[in-house]
Amino acid sequence: DAGVIQSPRHEVTEMGQEVTLRCKPISGHDYLFWYRQTMMRGLELLIYFNNNVPIDDSGMPEDRFSAKMPNASFSTLKIQPSEPRDSAVYFCASSFRTALQETQYFGPGTRLLVL
Amino acid sequence: GQSLEQPSEVTAVEGAIVQINCTYQTSGFYGLSWYQQHDGGAPTFLSYNALDGLEETGRFSSFLSRSDSYGYLLLQELQMKDSASYFCALSGSARQLTFGSGTQLTVLP
Fold first, then answer.
1. Could you tell me how many helices (H) and strands (E) chain A has, helices first?
2. Whether residue A101 has pLDDT greater than 70
3. Within a 10 A sphere around the Cβ of A55, how many other Cβ atoms?
4. What residues of B are in contact with residue A91 (Cβ under 8 Å)?
5. Backbone phi, then psi, for A35, in 5-degree steps?
6. B2 pLDDT more than 70
7. Looking at the complex, does the CB of residue A25 fall below 8 Å from at least one CB of chain B?
8. Rounded CA gap, B70 and B23, in Å?
9. How many CB pairs under 8 A join A and B?
């Protein structure tokens, strides 16, 4: 398996522009998570989906952030408009929940810089 | 809400044993996980404790005491490649993770 795939790996944009981050989870996984990592706030959960349905988006910082999962193989995290404080590494992770399996598999991340 | 505390930095020498502690506050959780992250990399799963006690996975072991709101990660036979950040994380009902701030482990030759 290729693991969780994220694109782009790096993104540099200007304040006010729309940014779309993409994620392909591991096939067969029924949970998908979006996390953000910064020096100041550490690793924080933004939103997660179960069977393509958003379950909890309480971690989404503002209305400028939105996430979708149109099918089991694809999810997007969109920031519109972007601001310099959105600069961070955004990770997508997926898992298959069982009584014994607790592993979340993280993608390589998208390093976002908003100028 | 939930909060976790762990030391910001730990230093040890190659071949030694190191313990990274994690204390937490929560109204409820399913388990305590540990993840490793190398600089520039993604977090990778190390260990999980759903029940009190010790879980052993090769050179890594993890411990949980729910009554003490405490857990630790034990790394044995340290190797240079173990230099990384280590995160404890509380697992929620959907196994969503709330992470601690991370411990930077430096292994010296």
1. 0, 11
2. no
3. 15
4. 42-43
5. -120, 160
6. yes
7. no
8. 5
9. 52
